[in-house]
Amino acid sequence: MSTPNEARDARHRQRKDEIIAAGRRCFRQSGFHAASMAQLAAEASLSVGQIYRYFTNKDAIIEEMVKRIIDSRLVYMEETATARNLPRLLAWRQALDEDDEALMLEVGAEASRNPVVARMLAEADSRMFTHACQNVKKTYPHFSDEHIRTCVEVFAVLVEGTAFRRLTPQKASAERLFILYQQLTDLLFKTEEK
Amino acid sequence: MSTPNEARDARHRQRKDEIIAAGRRCFRQSGFHAASMAQLAAEASLSVGQIYRYFTNKDAIIEEMVKRIIDSRLVYMEETATARNLPRLLAWRQALDEDDEALMLEVGAEASRNPVVARMLAEADSRMFTHACQNVKKTYPHFSDEHIRTCVEVFAVLVEGTAFRRLTPQKASAERLFILYQQLTDLLFKTEEK
User: Fold this and answer.
1) pLDDT level of residue A193 (50, 70, 90 thresholds)
2) What is the pLDDT of residue A194?
3) Which of A113, A152, A169 sits opposite B122 (nearest CB)?
4) Tell me, what CATH number does A7's domain have?
């Protein structure tokens, strides 16, 4: 049986989830800059005052949203977006979650004008990058840290460039891209200098 | 000596340039969605009515702005961002114009919610892509069109991914990235199948 404290914590978590879900819908629709706390409260069927009990401001909502997107990307990276699977994911432009991708584009656009969001993006990227390096190290323990960082950077460029290009129609053959991305992966994992 | 018509055309062009410049500043500051025609008019020191004599709505201003960014990118591609120079530009994350890049990120974020802007982005990408393919064809006339499209797509992914990653600190050595991007360029321009 749950104690009163546990029940309160569960309610608290659920309310936060609802605010984040409402935030995501508002941000997708209007962008961070145009979405107001009032609009967000209406979307969550709460008062603005209630929202402030959970998040001190809009930036705090964005921060929690980004944290959750990165959490789910880390799981995806572990399970699906391994170096072995990347050529296929890139060539066929497979997205983990289209809403997440659109929101991260929004984060990028906002980061270029808002230093608070720029810091969030830098931290999110740093978490992803460190995690990806650790994953590569597990499979290729003889690689130098410097070489691993180079590989991960190129993969990050390819993954983020592909996410951006998903906004426009694909103009090259996915089959040919697949072959090329496989060759590129081979290049990355065979060029370690001694 | 200029005729009255020529003088009027020159004034018309200058006014349009001023509105685009004001639009760029407003869009950088607030994003497309939040920037209003009133804010834009104030920034250009014009009345809203005057703005409407040049552009039917905010989307028309965005469209002209995107057209001009692509025009300058095509010149850049021709003169600087050739296949030969790309490894260096990518490894050191060199930007043509940081404002242009931030505005194109904003175009991407807006494209994911506004079909008019999505169409603009698709047309802009199509112009860039066609032009890049023609450039490659000039240097490698024996390459198949299919192979050229594959190369250009990979380059586009690398250029756009690098632009996005410029928002966060670089974590790999530019010198090592340079070597890798050179190998990748060699791979692209040597893997044409007969």
Assistant:
1) very low
2) 41
3) A169
4) 1.10.10.60
Binary contact (A173, B150; C-beta < 8 A): yes
Q: What is the largest CA-CA distance in chain B?
A: 62
Residue B137: CATH number of its domain: 1.10.357.10
Q: Do A31 and B28 touch (CB under 8 A)?
A: no
How close A50 comes to chain B (CA, Å)?
25
CA gap B165, B168 in Å, rounded: 6
Single-letter amino acid code for the residue at A168: T
What would the two tokens of residue A62 be?
């964005």
Which residues in chain A have Cβ-Cβ distances shorter than 8 Å to B126? 168, 171
Calpha distance B183→A169 (Å, rounded):
28
Residue A83 has pLDDT above 90, yes or no: no
ipTM of this complex prediction, to 2 decimal places: 0.92
Q: What residues of chain B lie within 8 A of the CB of A191, using their CB?
A: 180, 183
Give, in order, the Cα–Cα distances in Å from B18 to each of A63, A130, B36, B52: 37, 45, 16, 14
Query: How far is residue B158 CA from its own chain's centroid?
Result: 14
B97: three-class secondary structure by DSSP:
coil
User: What is the tens place of the pLDDT at every residue in B92-106?
Assistant: 999 878 899 999 999
CB contact under 8 A, B157 and A154: no
One domain for residues A153 and A183: yes
Contact B106, A153 (CB under 8 A): no
Considering the domain architecture, whether residues B146 and B63 belong to the same structural domain is answered as: yes
- Domain limits for position A178: 58-194
User: What type of residue is A32?
Assistant: F
Check residue A2 and give its pLDDT: 72
Instruction: Give the tokens for residue A114.
Output: 């808002």
